[in-house]
Design goal:
heterodimer, A: 445 residues, Rossmann fold, Dihydrodipicolinate Reductase, domain 2, 2 domains, 6-stranded parallel β-sheet, globular, B: 274 residues, alpha+beta, 4-stranded mixed β-sheet, 4 helices, 18% helix, 16% strand
């Protein structure tokens, strides 16, 4: 992937078919869709979107999709394991769209699907694009199914929670390429204009050769849901998904992956040779806090001697730090996306002084523009690799062993139950480094 | 780094002292003006005599207390006397509400307060935490803190109205030093790290902008912040909330508690009576 390719907008339709995947719905742009060649009365085809995962992020992503164009992107189908999530999602979208844009919400009752196989029904409902925003565990399977069905995809981060998942995403990336389908990732900072300005300068060599990258995601814990008497184990774990390792991949995978992705971006998406990581669970109490760690620290070793340091933590009522430090032979760069500060101190100092942008909207603007243009975006390989950075660090911390990239990519360990069903579901114990034999899983009370 | 507007400062102090010793009211002309919301910006208000002393408001489970400073009422009766926190509210206090640090201490009555969700954003922005003013706080979040503090203290706390806030800064004197764009270094600073005004209020100008309420209950931020030029701090600092303050919250509904794009948004509390 060329970084230059990623830096521009790709607006402007072509004569290309809107959907060119092998199993695509035959929706064509029409013969005269090039700007300047449109006959009077020409209107672009409507793009139908299916939302898989109707929580807060999914609802946000669906709205951003519908706002990517002025009325020609509509929501056609929704799916969630919980039916009630679709009710609240639809209500919020309707409110957010307002009367003027209410027509963009076109989800008939028969296009609402619940249960564990909801994603298949959404994909088969006649949509052109799917948005994948369920808990991460389910992502790679849904991604594969969507691409096999010829759908363009917006895929939230992380893309997987284990080695088999990452390998599946890499296969999916190839599939998307072969079928000329757009695959846009939810690693949103790569869609932030100020970040692009800064990272482009780093990749252009303004710091010279890099020496080290240090990133942090020190934050507080996610919220929890107290168990209701009517919930079974599976419901309880799904409602508290960020806190269960099989569902979220642990917080380094679910949240801090953003910072590791920015490290990868600075490194030109080169992959490390090895990671050493430590972690533990110090503040998390209660069943709703599941079985994840609450802190990690990792050192990535790259072939060229560059080190990547990372610290992630979810402790309540403590200081936050979510910053990026990139050190090179000629100087250093500092980014605090929340301040916001984007600065390079090298032979001369550079600060980003331009406007910010809504990076979440940008993701969808570029996704739909790429579909219209018949020039598919494909974030597949780097987004899979960035997810793997977090997974390998987590596995190193869980086991107390360094993990090489080769080992991580070959890892067969799959998280979670073999099949998904309501009912009992034992909780894996919190991993203790150095303990070779896992104690038995405990049933959730 | 800063300069006291000595005329106003001295005059306001003199008024206050006169009030405290029961010498009656006092009006000082010539205070600096600004583009505020309630008009009559260019005079230090005439105030009622006021013999009250500051008191300490203990914040449960935080290890800190906040000094509440008496602010005399206006002579014309439009502003009743009140107490205002001498500093902006720090994370030490706000974390108690967010993370329920007081629950284990068995504080009664807290169950009725809706508490902020865990922040999605890096709420303190890396500026500093313990001892630093809380930021990224929505109007809703600031009001929830007041409601909680009312319950745990037994004293009525709320946000100041814009009129009360303006009254306080005029009585205290607008010349107190401020953390603004020129000296703050793109960050907030510990509460009370610059000298107070004549009333004992720190950082009314700058550091973080402070939530106040308008007559219709809507919010307005006064005082400007570390991000603003000097002329947009103090009385010159007035911002009405916009959706841009939360545009990068990726979820729908957007958080009613945290402003993803509000690194400047904090508050101080008013107490009606001791």
């Amino acid at each position: 992937m060329s970084k230059k390719k990623r830096n521009g907008f790709r607006r402007g339709p072509t004569r290309r078919s809107l959907l060119v995947g092998a199993a695509a719905t035959p929706v064509a742009m029409g013969a005269a869709s090039c700007a300047g060649l449109r006959p009077a009365g020409w209107e672009p085809e409507v793009i139908k979107v299916g939302l898989i995962g109707c929580g807060g992020r999914g609802t946000g992503a669906a709205l951003q999709a519908m706002r990517a164009e002025a009325g020609t992107v509509v929501l056609h189908a929704m799916g969630d394991v919980f039916a009630e999530k679709m009710d609240s999602c639809a209500e919020r979208l309707t409110t957010a769209l307002g009367e003027e844009n209410a027509g963009r919400m076109q989800v008939d009752p028969e296009h609402r699907f619940d249960g564990f196989d909801a994603y298949r029904k959404v994909i088969a409902s006649g949509v052109d694009v799917v948005i994948l925003t369920t808990p991460p565990h389910f992502r790679h399977v849904q991604l594969r199914a969507a691409l096999e069905a010829g759908k363009h995809v917006f895929c939230e981060k992380p893309m997987a929670v284990d080695g088999p998942g990452v390998r599946s995403v890499l296969e999916s990336a190839k599939l998307a390429k072969a079928r000329k389908l757009s695959l846009v990732s939810g690693f949103c900072w790569r869609y932030s204009i100020p970040h692009r300005e800064m990272w482009t300068r780093i990749l252009d060599g303004q710091l010279g050769d890099l020496r080290a990258v240090y990133t942090t995601y020190n934050a507080g814990p996610n919220g929890t849901h107290k168990r209701k008497p009517e919930w079974d184990d599976m419901q309880f774990q799904l409602k508290n998904w960020p806190h269960f390792s099989w569902l979220s991949g642990d917080h380094i995978t679910e949240q801090a992956c953003h910072s590791l992705d920015k490290m990868a971006w600075a490194m030109g998406d080169e992959v490390p040779e090895k990671v050493w990581a430590i972690g533990g669970r110090q503040t998390a109490e209660g069943k709703a806090r599941g079985n994840i760690y609450d802190h990690f620290s990792a050192t990535f070793e790259y072939a060229n001697g560059v080190k990547g340091f990372h610290m992630a933590r979810q402790w309540p009522a403590c200081a936050f730090d979510n910053t990026d430090h990139i050190l090179g032979e000629h100087g250093s760069a500092f980014c605090n996306g929340w301040a916001p500060i984007h600065r390079i101190e090298s032979k001369k100092t550079w600060n980003y002084e331009g406007p910010g942008n809504d990076m979440y909207q940008q993701e969808h603007d570029e996704l739909f523009a790429s579909i219209r243009a018949g020039k598919p975006l494909n974030d597949g390989v780097w987004m899979a690799h960035s997810s793997m950075l977090a997974i390998m660090a987590r596995n190193s911390a869980y086991t107390g062993q360094p993990v090489t990239w080769q080992e991580a990519m070959a890892d067969e360990a799959r998280l979670g139950p073999d099949t998904y069903a309501w009912g009992d579901l034992a909780v894996e114990p919190v991993p203790i480094p150095g303990r070779r034999k896992k104690p038995a899983a405990k049933a959730e009370a | 780094m800063w300069k006291i507007d000595s005329g106003v400062e001295v005059c306001a102090l003199a008024c206050l002292l006169a009030s405290l010793v029961g010498l009656g009211s006092c009006a000082a002309p010539g205070g600096p003006g600004g583009p505020g919301g309630t008009g009559a910006m260019d005079a230090t208000p005439a105030i009622l005599p006021d013999e009250r002393l500051p008191f300490s408001e203990t914040i449960p489970a935080s290890g800190i207390s906040i000094e509440m400073v008496p602010v005399p009422g206006s002579l014309d009766g439009t502003i009743q006397p009140f107490y205002l926190s001498s500093t902006e509210i720090p994370w030490d206090a706000y974390d108690v509400l967010t993370f329920e640090l007081d629950i284990d201490e068995g504080v009664e009555g807290v169950d009725g307060v809706t508490r902020p969700t865990r922040p999605y954003v890096a709420a303190d922005r890396g500026f500093g935490h313990m001892g630093y003013p809380c930021v990224s706080i929505s109007l809703n979040g600031a009001q929830a803190f007041c409601e909680w503090l009312t319950i745990v203290s037994g004293r009525l706390h709320r946000l100041p109205t814009e009129q009360e806030w303006e009254h306080a800064i005029k009585v205290g004197g607008t010349g107190a030093p401020a953390w603004d764009r020129s000296n703050a270094g793109e960050s907030t600073h510990p509460i009370g790290s610059l000298p107070a005004d004549a009333l004992g209020l720190h950082d009314m100008s700058g550091n973080v902008a402070e939530w106040c309420t308008l007559p219709d209950g809507a919010g307005v931020m006064r005082g400007g912040s570390f991000l603003d030029d000097a002329e947009h701090t103090g009385l010159g600092g007035r911002m009405l909330p916009t959706p841009a303050w939360n545009v990068t919250d990726p979820q729908i509904p957007k958080s009613p508690w945290w402003l993803a794009d509000g690194p400047f948004a904090g508050f101080r509390v008013l107490c009606e009576t001791e």
